[in-house]
Amino acid sequence: MQDYTAKARRLRIAALFAAAFGVSATLAGPALAEILDLEKDELKFGFIKLTDMAPLAIAYEKGFFEDEGLFVTLEAQANWKVLLDRVITGELDGAHMLAGQPLAATIGFGTKAHIVTPFSMDLNGNGITVSNEVWEMMKPHIPAGEDGKPVHPIKADALKPVVEKFKADGKPFNMGMVFPVSTHNYELRYWLASGGIHPGFYSTSDISGQIKADALLSVTPPPQMPATLEAGTIHGYCVGEPWNQQAVFKGIGVPVITDYEIWKNNPEKVFGLTKEFAQENPNTTLAVTKALIRAAKWLDENDNANRAEAVEILSKSEYVGADAEVIANSMTGTFEYEKGDKRDVPDFNVFYRYYATYPYYSDAVWYLTQMRRWGQIAETKDDGWYAETAKSVYRPDIYLQAAKLLVEEGLAEETDFPFGTDGYREPTDAFIDGVPYDGRKPNQYIDSLPIGLKSGQTIEGSDVVGG
């Protein structure tokens, strides 16, 4: 028998007592569900200080990990690379990860390791912020509404003349993103390219991502984004919260667009662990997934009624460590763009609704298409490769097994989960440029995007060849 935490042991004893004396599951209560036979019950998970790590914090603070017999330690990490490396070495059992990290590691872009994800942590949650100087240069190119405020969404078309002015003056236009395989990198690139601004290619010999670039993108850790912007090292950035709202509060920049407006209800972070861990600890992986699903449900239930409490939890120094007021600016269903221009964005952070926690193959495929589009995947792959890679990393089978147990335990509704899906979302054109995406036809999608590599093309030196 595992040495469970005191609370979990009490729950297990109560469940066994209920079973022995014929107490019905209803009377015994949903929290008395039998704990799985865990292979490992003491776990350490990593995260980066962003509001979308919330499912981990809530699963810990609300006792959902303990309910599953898990004794979990949460530990903030210095940056995404350190976090991934520590999962690979086993120093961390799992972590809050960029959606692109498990995919990139598995295909060998950067670090090579087979990482899997049974749980998608959220939808949306990012924004693009520019400096006050750049904002003033953009404003003449942005239409205003009847109230005099800018009409949203703001397209990169308004940034293009600014970038061209920098180029004419012989100055680089620098922007920050958090990691080469981050959602932020791909969202920023998508937005820029949709406005005719080339964000640059990667190649096997040049991993800067700046080949042929009009805007030069480079890595800046999320908490350092506002200070780097204020110092003038970068002119804008794409990051998760609370670091866009922090720029507003500090008066140093203006968020111009959210990722919800770039791709409505886009997948964001995932919970990642090694394939070996999942294979060697199947019940533990299942228990972790159950606890995270419950945490996501708590975050969204009753029309976000728990968000104020979540903000207080996340503001603690051991989690995000930003002022509660700053976190609340986006976490509670609003988003402030220019100072004083606060608008309702109820789906800025989505943790549970719209099947947010289900790891869709089509989400994985989209990230892979962007890796190929910008040269991180150097050569054309057939559609079957995209499907196989997605299925080797995204594990909806584990997710649905966890969901089934929660339904049986009375802790979730069957309608909360997409039982019966083939793992692909329906095709969508809910992007800022309206280009349709079908996860079943990745090459057709890649070839339809105006800027980026096409079928048969590769980067040689600083040139696009083939195709």
TrEMBL record:
Gene3D superfamilies: Periplasmic binding protein-like II. GO terms for cellular component: endomembrane system. Keywords: Cell inner membrane, Cell membrane, Membrane, Signal, Transport. Residues 1-33 form the signal peptide. The keyword Membrane applies. It is found in: Endomembrane system. Its main location: membrane. SUPFAM superfamilies: Periplasmic binding protein-like II. It comes from the Bacteria. InterPro entries: NrtA/CpmA_ABC-bd_dom. Pfam families: NMT1_2 (PF13379). The keyword Transport applies. This is ABC transporter substrate-binding protein.
